[in-house]
Write a structure and sequence with these properties.
Blueprint lengths: L1 H14 L3 H20 L6 E3 L3 E3 L3 H14 L3 H11 L1
Antiparallel strand pairs: 1-2
Length: about 80
């Protein structure tokens, strides 16, 4: 946590922004990432300078198996199968 605070402070100083603005920008990016990763569409997400985030094949297979076992939410099951293709 201390390294993060130092990073934010140095970045704010370098870019001549308030610490609040830098913290807001960083938290906004991570909220966006979290929201996308929790969506039913399971998209691949690319964030510049951070990389690509996507669901692992084993995790996807597990999700499909669980949905088939529980025989629930056929819409989610269809979307998960579409992602696997």
């Amino acid at each position: 946590m201390r390294k993060l605070q130092e990073f934010i402070k140095n970045l704010a100083k370098e870019k001549k922004l308030s610490i609040f603005a830098v913290e807001f920008a960083i938290s906004h990016q991570y909220k966006f990432l979290k929201k996308c990763m929790q969506s039913d569409d399971l998209p691949d997400i690319y964030m510049k300078n951070l990389g690509r985030f996507k669901i692992k094949k084993k995790r996807l297979d597990w999700m499909i198996d669980e949905l088939e076992k529980n025989n629930s939410d056929t819409d989610k099951l269809k979307k998960a199968r579409d992602v696997r293709k």
